[in-house]
């Protein structure tokens, strides 16, 4: 009776040994053939149950998402810079208008002072004669 139980256990042990050898050869092949980055991808593929398409798809999706986010960030930055340049130009134009008004008002004030002085002189002269 013990003999049949030994025969059943021996083939199982032999099959397990074959699987271990095949796994070892596969691991050795991965180390020799694949660079480090590819090895990580292969390890992830093994962890996910051989769904390499899912990780590759998610990597591509992540790269596309990063690229789209980067492009949107550049567009928003360009729009903000353009708006700031527009505001600077508008502010400079307003400052030029204000400075030209101040110059013209200064001239007007000086003319009014001259006219006031002339009027006062005329009044002083006419008041003295009377």
Structural overview:
- The structure is a single chain.
- By secondary structure, the chain is an all-alpha fold.
- Helix content is 94%, strand content 0%.
- The chain has three helices and no strands.
- The longest helix has 78 residues, at 52-129.
- The relative contact order is 0.03.
- The model is unreliable at 1-10 (pLDDT under 50).
Layout of SSEs?
Elements: H1 2-33, H2 36-47, H3 52-129
Short description:
This protein is mainly α and 130 residues long.
- Output the helix-strand order: HHH
Tell me the total number of β-strands. 0
Query: Total helix count?
Result: 3
Net shape:
rod-shaped
What Rg, in angstroms, do the CA atoms define? 46 Å
**Mean pLDDT, rounded to whole units?**
78
Question: pLDDT below 50 for ≥5 consecutive residues: which ranges?
Answer: 1-10
User: Roughly what fraction of the amino acids lie in strands?
Assistant: under 5%
Compute the separation of the termini in Å: 159 Å
Q: Helix content range of the residues, please?
A: over 70%
Q: What is the structural class?
A: mainly alpha
Main beta sheet strand tally, sense and closure = none
Keywords:
single chain, 130 residues, 94% helix, rod-shaped
